[in-house]
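Running co-folding for BZD.
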Amino acid sequence: MSLTVTQFKKDFKKRLHEKYAIEVEDASNVEWYGALGSLVKAYYSKSLRKTHKQYIEEETKQAYYFSIEFLPGKMLKSNLLNLGILDVVRDGLKSMSIELEDVMEAEPDMALGNGGLGRLASCFMDSAASCALPVHGNGIRYDYGLFKQRFVDGYQVELPDSWLQGGNPWEVRRENKAVEVRMGGTIALVPDNSGNLIPRYYNAKVLRAIPYDTHMVGYENGVVNNLRLWSVEIPVTEEGNYLTLEERQEVENITAVLYPDDSNYDGRQLRLKQEYFFVSAGLQSIVNYYLRSGQAIEELPEKVAVHINDTHPAMCVPELMRILLDEAHLSWEKAWNITVKVMSYTNHTLMAEALEKWPTQMVEEIVPRIYQIIQEIDRRFVADVSEQVGCDIANRTRIIQNDHVHMAHLAIIGSHSTNGVAKIHSDLLKNVVLHDFYLLYPERFNNKTNGIAERRWLQLSNEELSGVLDETIGKTWRKDPGALKLLEAYRKDKKVLKKIAQAKQHNKKNLAAFIKQEYDIEVSSDAIFDVQIKRLHAYKRQLLNLLHIVKLYLDLKENPDRHEQARVFIFGAKAAPSYDYAKTIIKCINEVAAMVNHDPDIKGKLKIAFLPNYNVSLAEKIIPAADVSEQISLASKEASGTSNMKLMLNGAVTLATLDGANIEIKDAVGEENIVIFGLTTEEVYQYYRNNNYNAREIYENDPTIHRVLNAFIDGTIPNISREGQEIFDSLVKYNDEYFTLRDFNDYVKGQETIAAAYQDTERWGEMCLMNIANAGRFSADQTVERYAEDIWHIEAVATEE
Ligand code: BZD
């Protein structure tokens, strides 16, 4: 949009007067933010209406991304950038003595997600709008987002995230789009006048689902899509529907808080209620919208695609069946045909403990009609498959097994597409984990390697590097990330390498200042900034990183004058509140940090900064300053990873195992621009097959490992008598589930390779440049375009800008 500084200032002052009855100079940054947010929303409202109208008039096929998590972070700067008014607003504010950065401080992170899965959903929302693709999100408006993390005595402490407290300028409550969702009670099928069996509900609880819409603004293209998040309310009109205080509380709990677990299946009732609540509300509103257009329900797959992001929304399958059977009165066959055409599903994990399986009794109690439909899907599936390929495979793939509903099976059977999120992950799905399904439906399986919203992860968060890119290769990369490749021509250009290095230095200094100010840790920007930022999980092996740090420390203690490349190890990681082992690792990292950071013998050659409350905003500060990207999960465990992509885009060199998307990063940058170490997936599987991994033997025979592990139990590292023992036992006594000791020496070598390369400034500069230049292929723009073409069968709409 076009906007002048003068006009902006006028609009901004007017907003402040109207909204808060306050003058610019008397307002706080909270008020500046509230006014600016609502003004920006007004700026894009015309485009919103226009996009909405266009979809209706052109009868555009639209896709709906169902996800129990969205993790957008802050939206102000992103919306300003995408509207093309970032500089005008920044200048306008400045002329009123306001720094945009101060206004941004007042915006809370919208953290309705745990980690990669939720962030991916938000990257897709940004990219879809920017590619003019008709894609909308559907999820839950949690009153409380992911907990805030603090460290007390080195332990993680969780605090509630009351992100809505100060008001949310981005959302619009759509009262007239509320729908009812039924849960509980019992069902009887009774014939209607024409003999159709119609379900009758007895004692069901009727919940009111209210949508709150947040708009997804495309990058300089006038497209605005919608993220619809549902909040529960108690209906006021139903007679006899008086609820006790306890019952009210029970209802309100449904959208009260985000489950903070990112990797374990936790079969609690409330979670199942959350899942059904947003699935039912979302599908009802989609079908209502579709039917208003006057089209026949049979044509639904021509106009609607529904995506199931991981299994949490898998009840989309039976819920759409319910709507088609009970409300549209279609036959089972017709309804099933439509459902499979509409639905598609993404798997995000191979870890057995993360796979959802609900006890049938619980499903029957909470969603009795849905349970009936699942039973019928299962019955027909078993009959078909047994007849065609035999009972064994039918029994292994059926939905209901051992009194549990297997949600992944439901999602696969009820969808026309199942995809993994990186090549290796999709291959393992096909060949190992979901092999039986692959035999049944080979045409349904495909890969969609993850991607990231490169506007946020480069243009927004790394203005310094963005400026260097503009000067060097022009500005096309801002719209077309593939154009980053133009940078490759400058790989030997010393001037360009120097500018990139200067941008990195600038960002490192900023991060160092932040770390000093917030956590009183002194770090030098001459040191390598080695970064591992992701949820804390044993398979991600933050512990491997820590063991190496302890080794470096012990080496330096033994020989304080030894020449060692200075390093700062930066961590950001939340542990699920109930994940004790992960919390133990946090405590150990913090205690090693306290020990190392204050030891004069170390002379600042080694520093550890474990920054609390890792979230999107903190990621935006850390990533531009990173030199090294730690992607060290045990091969075969990380489905894809996405911080690996964000870090390479910002010129960090990856130190990685051959896991998830690391493999594709290696292919993109070339072996000489990445450092690979550790077991391969095949080797890991071989250990499993032969059952011959022996961690104790490694501990006993390898003096370095022996010395490092002993430091956890002999008092070398203070204040961890319990935790140190737990770590030691997990590795030695319980045979090191994630082969940390097996990969240790190779990892140390990898770290040595990194240090040596860093000292060769030109070599290092070229590695950084090659990473930036080849990051375009991990743009989520490309990823969503592949989803659009191969899975959703939707097309971009025409745009003017
Ligand atoms: O999804 C992650 C994977 O671990 C990553 O490898 C992958 O890159 C991303 C995106 O595809 N999975 C999650 O983040 N999972 C969760 O956050 C989650 C949340 C609730 C319940 C189960 C898992």
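Result summary
The domain at 454-778 is CATH 3.40.50.2000 (Rossmann fold).
The longest strand covers residues 205-217.
Job closed.
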